[in-house]
Fold this protein.
Amino acid sequence: MSASQNLPPGSVEVSTLSVPQLSSLQSRLSQELEHLTSSHTKLRAAQSRFRECIKSVQSGVKEGSDDKQILVPLTGSLYVPGKLASKDTVIVDVGTGFYVEKTTEDATKFYNGKVSELGKNLEELEKVVTGKSESLRVIEDALRQKVIEGNAATTSAAASA
């Protein structure tokens, strides 16, 4: 039984591809890997922001007094001073510009759920990145082998002439 018979349906034996095809495939896989790595970084950053929200709710709101001044974020880099109207409820950004009033316990549960969900997504993405990295390594090895074979053939043809 040959190696090509063990391939899953729709797969191609890498050794049968030409150098231009391998180069194109290498380029495409590199771009995909770069995009996936960027997405991984963004998901990690989002997970970190949700963890910061949990800390803010637990330490800043629950333990704070009603008279305590806090900094209220208007944008990612602009904060204004403010006072808590209530220690029992907070306004939570649930996405796409929608805000919901929740108890501090519900807000913490919401953010813990987001952290957990992102953790699962990150695990899946890491598996995909690992698979793509392995595929890229195989393609690069095959391309390197084809180039070496091509150079050897050129050298032997020049020596024969």
